Amino acid sequence: MEMGTSKNPLFLCFILIFMVSSTISQVEVVTHLCSNRGNYTSDSVYKQNLATALSSIVSDTQIDYGFYNFTAGQEPDKVHAVALCLGVVSVEKCRSCLNASTRRILEDCPNQKEAIGWYTDCMIRYSNRTIFGVRNDRVLEPVFISGQNASDIDGYTQSLSDLLQRLRNEAASGDSRRKSAVGEIGAPKLGTIFGHLQCTPDLSSVDCNNCLVTAADRVPTGSTGTRIFLTSCYLRYENRLFYDPSPPPPPPAGGVPSPPLSPPPTPDNNSNTARTVIIVVVSIVSAIILVVGIFIILRLRKRKHKTPEEKFDGVSFGDTTGEISSVETIQYDFDTIKVATNDFSTENKLGQGGFGAVYRGKLPNGQQIAVKRLANNSQQGDLEFKNEVLLVVKLQHRNLVRLLGFCLQKTERLLIYEFVPNASLDHFIFGMISYSTLFLLSLWSHWKSHPIPFIWLTKLSTYMDDDVDFEKRSQLDWDRRFKIINGIARGMLYLHEDSRLRIVHRDLKASNILLDEEMNPKIADFGMARLFEVDETQGNTSRIVGTYGYMAPEYLMHGQFSVKSDVFSFGVLVLEIVSGQKNNCFRNGEKVEDLSSCAWKNWRAGTTTNVIDQTLSVGSKIEMMRCIHIGLLCVQENAADRPTMASVVLMLSSFSLTLPVPAEPAFFMHSNIDESNTLPKSDLWLETIQSSHYENTPVQALKNDPSISELHPR
């Protein structure tokens, strides 16, 4: 008997540790939002009322339908609290989640007077204002995308739409105790779609329906699994069964019957029980201390002896664990991408960017993809990779390139995008081969001390332009170019104002505009983008990133960026599209000028048509000149004088709108580069080509100091 008594506490210890670990695993934070409507102090009345309201939720055992509504205190320190359990979990799981989450939300949102947290099986929300019966369509980030793209997107989308509409009607028709619905539907080539929609039951049927409509609008096209959390409702669907189709019924209102009374304990039993309790408590405490100690030792040892590859794995977003959980579900396996790109073969290479190469690939389901493989030796690339994943996954617009997923494996960082077949805009409006070839020839001649005569280079330039520029430019008639300008403008307007976020791209240029099979533009490469809060209008940085020629003066000189910085880049891009030439080397005969300076001088002289691409023999000259006018408004030196993207979209669509007079553009050149220049022509041409090269080279990390103006090629 003594031996049996000594073993039982150890067994109970392991059982209790297992139960504790199971409970901890059930308190996973899915998403939460801490409001900035006010804070409370640790000794305030509001904190006491909040503790009372949350404890009322946990202690209430009479409610068995999963919705709780409590208030505590008096105004102005009155607390309103609601809690909701998912309709697909049992009463036991519901109460376990509530017990843990009422503590966890105070850790996630310390001292905030208003907060909401969605956890594995439940939701907790409290506020200092009335929230019961008030619909709130605020979408909590992130939107969880847990499936790959469907092979038959149209068929899958139709089946999903039918399922969500049916479940929405069923959930909205629920009573004041529960508004929840689950169901399934067959989908083409993917088996069955399972769905779950739920509202807080304090909403009316109309409000519940409208909230779920808002959630459904956020569903990404073609994804086979998504979870969307709003303040007042919830939507989830998968191509696997994620809920118990027949959950246990709630217990009767009278509660669980009491167990039969045990016989009164004897004195010996009392002694054994006390000894057992002491042994169990000591064992549990000792085991916890031992486990924590071992964990700390292993953690310190691992951190001390971390290999270079493990250190690199640390870029799995550092302190943004909550953010990266939003996109973990679209993570691709590296071997899959390796096979899709034929081991990143040269034949599949589409181009080279500032932080790595881009490859074409084909997934096993036949879907074409573009894979951006970041260079291993770029520490700055780590930040851009994290930025691009967390940013682009939240954006949905027809004029933005769509992120399908990503891959993180040791030293490999991959971004998987939709494949856009027509490459980038610069391949169509610029002579990519001619400029790069001339630049290399010039460097070679300079290095060999055998300068190539200027006339040879100009002849070669003319020949290559005839062979490349005009052939590709001819595919872009004016209607297509005007369509591209409008599409870029609408995409930038979405980034600046219409998306749930407010984003400054900071690297808008021709090579970052991709064209699909119908020549619709798609803005790409969000590695440099910066996110603004709603009330922010301007930011500062000590790292100047972007591309010379497209960078606004306030950003280049002082590191100040805003939506007006993007407007400047857009203006440069518009002038390039209309003229068919790069912004830093507009050629007029033997003269080489800055594009914006030349456009402004011609606009003032009434000879704007001199700037228009000579290949545009067909098309509205009025539209072309209006676009040049808009471009000049966008490249004005004073950021306050530049229009917003909303104004630009209006200017492009409404020709009855009178345009203001543009001021002198930034970096205005008062004299042309011509034969009167003191430099010999051969040296001048070399200088121009070198300026062209450096001006279109991405700037990855430039310190913001007074010497920056010396780096500008003009």
What does this 3D model show about the protein?
The chain is α+β, with helices and mostly antiparallel strands and 714 residues long. Among the domains are: 27-132, Gnk2 domain, C-X8-C-X2-C motif (Killer Toxin P4, Chain A, 2-Layer Sandwich), CATH 3.30.430.20; 133-245, Gnk2 domain, C-X8-C-X2-C motif (Killer Toxin P4, Chain A), CATH 3.30.430.20; 330-419, Phosphorylase Kinase, domain 1 (2-Layer Sandwich), CATH 3.30.200.20; 475-653, Transferase(Phosphotransferase), domain 1 (Orthogonal Bundle). The protein contains 20 helices and 25 strands. The chain has a 5-stranded antiparallel beta sheet. It is elongated. The termini are far apart. One of its GO terms (biological process) is response to abscisic acid. Residues 28-131, 138-242 form the Gnk2-homologous domain. It is a single-pass membrane protein. InterPro entries: GNK2, GNK2_sf, Kinase-like_dom_sf, Prot_kinase_dom, Protein_kinase_ATP_BS, Ser-Thr/Tyr_kinase_cat_dom, Ser/Thr_kinase_AS.
Keywords:
alpha+beta, elongated, 20 helices, disordered C terminus, 714 residues, Phosphorylase Kinase, domain 1, 5-stranded antiparallel β-sheet, Killer Toxin P4, Chain A
